[in-house]
Amino acid sequence: MIHKNHLAKTVAKLQNKSLSVEEYLDELRTRTESIEPEIESLLPESDRWSRLTSDSEQLASTPYSAQKPLYGIPVGVKDIIHASGFQTKANSSLPPEQLTGPEATVVRQLKSAGALVFGKTVTTEFAYSEPGPTKNPHNTNHTPGGSSSGSAAAVAAGLCPLALGTQTIGSIIRPASFCGVVGFKPSYGRVSAEGVIPLSQSVDHVGFFTQDVAGAEIAASVLCAGWQTIPEGMDRPTIGIPDGPYLQQASSDGLDRFHTHCRRLEQAGYDVEKVPVLPDIETINKYHERLIAAEAAMVHHEWYQEHGEKYGAQTAELIEEGYGVPTREIAIGRNSRMETRTHLTDVMEDHDIDIWIAPGACGPAPEGIDSTGDPIMNLPWTHAGLPTIAIPTDDTINGLPIGVQCVTHFNADEHLLNWAREIVRTLQA
């Protein structure tokens, strides 16, 4: 059920006209009609293919359109992100007309770069924990992760080469790891969240999924403010393993495979060093989770007062918890973001670490789709707002992918993606 659909290669083919947009859409239609009924990654759309054909014809009639960086590329849009002509339902039973708003900045940026909206992708309810119907393309008895479930699954299955996601704890990196694709969560604020239904505005990030790091660099150059191209041939980064209680949150199987991945990087000539860090991870976890609850209650207050009975149990529980978080605790949680970033940055500088490496998730995707898995391995990096990339490896447990995540300094997103090119080659050798 997994098909190669590398963004960078497809961009090149569409731009040099060795592949037409019409031919590419025909390929995707065949694949989608075969696979989508099993994985349910997309919101149903009765006229998807006629709409895409019309959109592609309009694009082709635009002068110099083939020179645009994402010319003809269909992009999945997570269904908390507004796109003109589409309702935003957020996997919720609330009236869609109350949720839909002006088109998101990221969607406008993608369209300006020549991309086509492939369709809306399934999210958990309001990007929290209440899952949708999406299954993991590697094994449909397992979750794809969440909350960006549909985006990760659609990219993994080759239905589209690029899809938008969001992350408030682990909603890009974890599903990318579970589905065996690249997931990129930029530095906090580097990609606009305007036009996205928030969950917790202090820690919400907008990012995306691809199958290839080279493709992720193209997408990042379109979406990240002030993107700078880093030349090839940079020195290899020194890699830090975050030793201590944070790392012990992973499963024993997950840790075994993670240490195997670290040894492979060492054997390939990387300097890999264990560094004690995040001794207060339990406190950070608590601050982050309470901050999300409080801010979710603020976002949803009016909707919840009017439509509380229409919310899923897990989302309602979060909002109810949020009502009980004192103002002082909210301030502590917000301050903790910068404190955690400073701590991680200081340790990196003290030990000459360029990149942290960690398991992308606690282990492989759990069985069943009633839960999207534990995001705890992603939490401190999101809390600190640091750029993070999920890197797929060639390793599996019972046929399910195992990924790693790499993290670097705030606003050093360009360096992270540049380094990730070689790291992914090493871990997929």
UniProtKB/TrEMBL annotation:
* Domain Amidase, first and last residues per copy: 29-417
Q: Which organism encodes this protein? A: Haloarcula terrestris
Q: What is this protein called?
A: Amidase
Q: Which PANTHER family match?
A: AMIDASE DOMAIN-CONTAINING PROTEIN, TRANSAMIDASE
One Pfam short name: Amidase
InterPro entries found in the cross-reference section: Amidase, Amidase_dom, AS_sf
Query: Any idea which GO molecular function terms this record carries?
Result: catalytic activity
| Taxonomy, superkingdom | Archaea
Q: Where is this region: Disordered?
A: 128-149
